[in-house]
Amino acid sequence: MNYNWNWRIFWEASPDAVGTYMDTLLSGLVWTLMTALSAWVMALVLGAVVGTIRTLPRRAPVAFANTYIELFRNIPLLVQMFLWYFVLPELLPEAAGNWLKSLPNASFITAVISLGFFASARVAVQISAGINSLPRGQKMAGQALGLTLPQTYRFVLLPMAFRLVIPPLTSEFLNVIKNSAVALTIGLMELTAQTRSMQEFSFHVFEAFTAATIIYLGVNVAVVNLMRFIERSVAVPGFIASGKAK
Amino acid sequence: MINFDFDVIERSWVYLFQTGMAFTLKLALYSMVGGIILGTILAMMRLSSNALVSRIAGTYVDGIRSIPLVLVIFWFYFLVPYLGAWAIGSKEPIEVGAFTSSLITFIMFEAAYYCEIMRAGIQSVARGQVWAGYALGMDYFQTMRHIVLPQAFRNMLPVLLTQTIVLFQDVSLVYVLSITDFVGAASKIAQRDGRLIEMYVFVAVVYFILCFSLSLLVKRLQKNIAIIR
What we know:
- The complex is a heterodimer.
- Chain A is mainly α.
- In chain A, helix 1 packs across helix 8.
- Chain A is flat and about 70 Å long.
- By secondary structure, chain B is mostly helical.
- Chain B is 80% helix and 0% strand.
- Classes of the chains: A mainly alpha, B mainly alpha.
- Chains A and B meet through helix 2, helix 3, helix 8, helix 9 and helix 10 of A and helix 3 and helix 8 of B.
């Protein structure tokens, strides 16, 4: 294979004036992590609310939650990003639309919003599955003790459900990190985008991609270990599903 | 509220479907078939009693599953010409068409996800059935072919199809290579005619209708093929 390998390329100055190519990649990593974390917070909050609504004993709220989930699950993330980025500012009143477009970090904000909604639908499914996986008796016991429905959720169901769904939520968080790469299509300079720019400036395709791959793998391992630690420290004693013995 | 121009859709829908959607569907279907075949092989490797074989498959699957599809698309886009040159012994990187390049990408990428599904499927078949196969004098491949895999497929069919819906949505990401898939075609028209709103809303509606009806079908299938144990 006639390809000129040069692994020292990372310590050469890059033309984007921030330093070496390594700095280019690291600034991409920072954007990736910031986008993923902000989107994840949004997804957790929205997902928890919608997921809880989905288990309520009323028809209308359940229908609302289901519509929400289907809407965000059945449109590709790329298309959703285009809708938020290109279409939404045009649909708003002109002043608001122009303000939105002129925000300094418009692509970052758009990426967070679209990733957040996209992931929240998936989180909602996990949360409602977690609530439904609890024995029926727990809810009945709560009601029998005279707790109101909100109290039953607050003190009995949700504290259990949240801890049970940590493993599936971990893989959703990993998905958010990976999906943040889609934001390069709306101009966010996250890790994959910076890798591309390094490749275009330096012509060292495979070094750049190898570095990005290693960084993504490293982030993955770190997140998996962190979540395992969290999972262990909040595990419900006596529940097999809490991960210790299978 | 601006005026929604249905005319641009009316003018371009033939192009959108004949060029764009045809590409998307073809790529999704071929990748599904290739991905399931390669994924099943990977799953069998992962469950192999040979530590090395299982390690290789495991590393590949875990590796692919932890990097973004967009990065994988770029990887293969640049790698495939070199690999092709290496395979046929040519000095220069060979030229690979957009379709072939993305097909290889998606088969290699989705195989990792199909592998995990098929692994669960194979593990869902009771141990005793494998032993029964061996007791009847079948070898490993005959047992797999006639006993384990047919049941694994049947058990996992809904999950395999759900993954295929995800794959169908993922295909939209070939947009990053400026390929004229459904989204790519729509975005070309959108930019040419300055009609971004109409085009992107139309794309979203079409995707939603297709994916939603597919997921309803999968749900119905799930009820119909469930095996009573």
